[in-house]
Design brief:
Layout: E1 28-33, E2 41-45, E3 47-53, E4 56-57, E5 69-73, E6 76-82, E7 85-88, E8 99-104, E9 111-115, E10 124-127, E11 131-138, E12 143-146, E13 151-155, E14 160-164
Parallel strand pairs: 6-13, 7-14
Antiparallel strand pairs: 1-3, 2-5, 3-4, 6-8, 9-11, 10-14, 11-12
Amino acid sequence: IYDDTALTKNEYTISHHKGEKPIVDIDEFTIFITGSITDCGEAENDFIYSIIRDYRDVSSNYEVTQTKGKLVVTKRPVTLTTKSKTFIYNGRYNSFAEFDIISGSFVSGHNYSAVNYVGIRDVGTVSNDMDIMVTKYDEINGQMVETSENYDISFVNNGTLTVNKRQITIT
């Protein structure tokens, strides 16, 4: 699950024929695992290896079959509910971009806010629907970048926006 840290897996196994050692005793096996992924998606867990004897690469003396693993980062689930608010008719567009987190969480240091939210002007009731945009400060670029694609944001039991009639008295 997405947590804004690089996912790596620095483990490997060497298979060989039963009863044989995988690498001759006088040869030295070295592996560098380079696979890494931070944002949601899938990446190969790349690696490079060498087999050395007396400071000389002897890898060509081995028939090596490489099977690269997969690194997978899935979206971070967050469930929200929007709040309700009632207004008296005022002729203006009324909105209320407030919500509560029901389950899950945003990564520490990430900012989140309502965007594309619903409003109401005339008497009636509408669901208080909205989208959420998530951003973080990117130290490399020195600016805010959007990270919404790393979250699976869902809404349940959304609140409503209601405009009631303005009471007037004529005498």
